[in-house]
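Hey team,

Sharing the TRAP transporter large permease protein run so nobody has to redo it. Sequence (442 residues) first:
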Amino acid sequence: MTTLAIGFLLIALLVALVLLGMQIAYALFGVAFLGIWIIRENITLAFRMLELTAYSGIADYLFATIPLFVLMGLLVSVSNVGRDTFEVAEELLRRMLCGLGVATVAANTVFAAVTGVSIASAAVFTQVAVPEMTRHGYRPAFAAGTVAGSSVLGMMIPPSLLLIIYGVLAEVSIGGMFIAGIVPGMLMAFGFVIMLMLMALLMPRFVFTDPEAARTRRLDQNGPKMPLRVMLSKMIPIVALVLLVLGGLYSGFFTPTEAGGVGAFGALIIALARRSLTRGKLWEVMKQTGAISVSILLLLIAASFYSRMLSIAGLPAAIADLVQSGGFTPLGFLVLYAVIILLMGMILDSTSILLIMVPIAAPIAQSLGIDLMQFGIITVIAVEIGLLTPPFGISVFTVHNTLDRSDVTVEQIFTATLPFILVMLAVLVLVALVPATATVFL
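Structure output:
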């Protein structure tokens, strides 16, 4: 049996192990170790490569980015910034068509710029936005779907953990990936807003329990109820943090790691100033930061080991030759790749898909002349769609479990997220056809 055939069998084994419930890190370690042992017929070499990978895999200063941004996101969540952001957006947009839906998207967009995790956004805004939308006559399932759909912005608008992981796996600049995510992230947010307004106009019964009463209530609302002073006190901390972190990063004043450190310190100051960080909460934040960071770093070590096994098997080069000999154009390859990612998103979580696919696909994309920044944005958008597609749909299940309402089923939330998926597919196609959407600021 050739090393190429062994490589394909090992990928199939990896997918099978993950589907059977084995944790992705253990599956990656096991398959990579077995592959090196079989291909080189030397178990000592397999142990030696595992030792070298464990030592060098995350030794770079760049990897401090992960715990720092995780810490910043958790501190922001503890300080109730998400609730304040939604309240201000609600105040400013309540007279707009589908105003609370638009406010949810706007608040998620701002919140995404400091958390970088979709699940955090989904959990926060389920508790904040859904009760308020339901009180104003929105259908509960639509409200839950709006939270789940807009929560995926956390994976695209920088800083994003998925962009960091992709940058590490594809060996491209993390700061560059953050910059590349700006335009697609904003296109997605504006697309969500336009879609929600069109739905409220053309399909009001899908949005509201009583469309006429909702329309009357919206038009009867007078001027601002929240004093300007209160509005500014709610928004200044989060806006200042976003400007500090992203402004310093994009201007070149901070490296990504330094931006994470500055952001974490700024988030700590905000939490202390709001007196929302008790000793118990601080301990919980530190524990969660450690647990999340260690799990991600372990996955990256496992992915590096897996990537070395693929290189030994010659798999990326062989697949690149197959793609080129098969007459695939760069666009044709992107279409095939996106379809595979979308299908995997139905059965695997986001990180698992990146760890399995990027080490194989990134070298192929590079050999076809595809910009790896553009390729990364396409990858993350396709992976994000998996957060909303059944049967896995982790964002949908997060919203459903946090909501805990018997009158809103998982199926109803999945249905309500379909328009968001269509918008994301449109942005995915746009980025594939117009590379400048991802590279214009690079």
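The chain has 23 helices and no strands.

Ping me if you want the raw files.
A.
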